[in-house]
Amino acid sequence: MVHTYELTTLDKAQRGRLLRRAEVAIDDLLDYIRPVVHDVRDRGDAALIDYMERFDHVHLTADQFRVSHEEIARAHDLLDKDVYQAIKHAIKNVRTFHERQMPHEQWFTEVAPGVMAGEKITPISSVGLYVPRGKGSFPSVVYMLATPASIAGVPRIVICTPPAPNGEVDPATLVAADLCGVHEVYRVAGAQAIAALAYGTETIARVHKVTGPGSPYVSAAKRLLYGTLDVGLPAGPSEAAILADESADPELVVRDLMVEAEHGPDSSSILVTNSRALLDAVKDLLPARIASLPEPRQTFCRTGFEGEKGTGGLILAPNLSEAIAFVNEYAPEHLLVHMREPFAVLPELRNAGEILLGSRTSGPLANYSLGINAILPTGGFAHTFSCTSVFDFLKRTSLGYVTAEGYGPLSDSTRILADFEGFPSHARAVTDRPEARF
Ligand SMILES: NC(=O)c1ccc[n+]([C@@H]2O[C@H](COP(=O)([O-])OP(=O)(O)OC[C@H]3O[C@@H](n4cnc5c(N)ncnc54)[C@H](O)[C@@H]3O)[C@@H](O)[C@H]2O)c1
Ligand SMILES: N[C@H](CO)Cc1c[nH]c[nH+]1
Ligand SMILES: [Zn+2]
């Protein structure tokens, strides 16, 4: 039976489970992943070799970690031509969107006569992009991460991705990396890859930031390494919420519900509606649609929508404003609005990694090729985190410049505040300052 809930009778435990969803699994893995992270820190490549054998069932020597230019060239020959063209089409839209997102390199504003305040932007010097492989081939994850990194001007872009048991890396991932100008690709996976990027090993130089989606093992490693490097936005198991009113087409709602649910058993996909008729229609259609999926996607969807620990389901709200309030609290990665007037509710939608408006704007369009970024905060972190963008790969530095005209009034109030806070050196630095020469 598909999980169904009524918002008015949802108990505290049910609500908590829906709101925390896959984050619970990440919490539970921290103690298990900690020794892996420490071991990579302490033993470098030797630990990577061991964990790649244990978790990925592949025997590698350290000199095989880095994917060679020849292997990347071979991937171009191996990749289906239609897939190659589709990747290029998607990259074009993703590039256009992210180029327009780029801020000015430097700006100043005169906040008072002779008092100039501004900012300068600089790319981060090195980033590690994690591209998952366990439950799918993800060339789209490559271009969603590497395109904004490259537009931002990051001089060293590194990818870590799991190899197959024969040691080969997914050709589509390699082609996408090549098309996006990625500098280094390593066949190193999971928590051990995140630790290698954080601490560096004999063969993989450390980076300043790691970003990209991953399984709860990857998310747990990132959480443990917070403080060692910038771990970016929390992008765990995929999830979506559909906000729908009585005008929604149940068939289209069912199709969109299954999109993120088919990523894995820990993915969450929910319908939130004020229409009992819609909920009942979706509930009737969903099991047959799930049954028509091939394995393992069928089991992933069944687990999410019907399983004991599944966090997917259908939620009936007493009215539209309660439905919107719940969606805002849920803060989904992907929010789809199947409503007659989607733009009318847009001002009220506050927390989501992305908002897709109208029943034509199906999730996969944005996952792959609409242009907006599909690597988004999960687990409720859309309350404070933003979608991946060029800003993930840039930092802002404040700039200040004071002319002789601006100095007088500014130094007077500064001295008063420094005295008040009890900082005599601060006060002295701006008292009777000899005429500055520049
Ligand atoms: N939020 C987003 O933007 C986004 C985008 C795409 C995918 N995703 C999510 O990313 C996740 C990808 O997960 P995945 O499994 O496909 O790939 P993954 O690469 O993140 O995880 C697989 C790796 O985990 C490690 N591993 C496997 N079993 C282990 C064990 N028992 N102990 C320790 N380590 C182990 C292995 O190294 C393996 O290569 C999915 O949950 C998907 O929903 C999210
Ligand atoms: N749904 C993922 C982000 O949550 C993106 C993706 C890539 N491929 C398929 N889906
Ligand atoms: Zn998806």
From TrEMBL:
GO terms for biological process: L-histidine biosynthetic process. PROSITE patterns: HISOL_DEHYDROGENASE. It catalyses: L-histidinol + 2 NAD(+) + H2O = L-histidine + 2 NADH + 3 H(+). Catalyzes the sequential NAD-dependent oxidations of L-histidinol to L-histidinaldehyde and then to L-histidine. Its cofactor is Zn(2+). It comes from the Bacteria. It is an enzyme of class 1 (oxidoreductase). Keywords: Metal-binding, Oxidoreductase, Zinc. Belongs to the histidinol dehydrogenase family. One of its GO terms (cellular component) is cytosol. The keyword Zinc applies. The active site is at E333 (proton acceptor), H334 (proton acceptor). GO terms for molecular function: histidinol dehydrogenase activity; metal ion binding; NAD binding. This is histidinol dehydrogenase. Its EC number is 1.1.1.23.
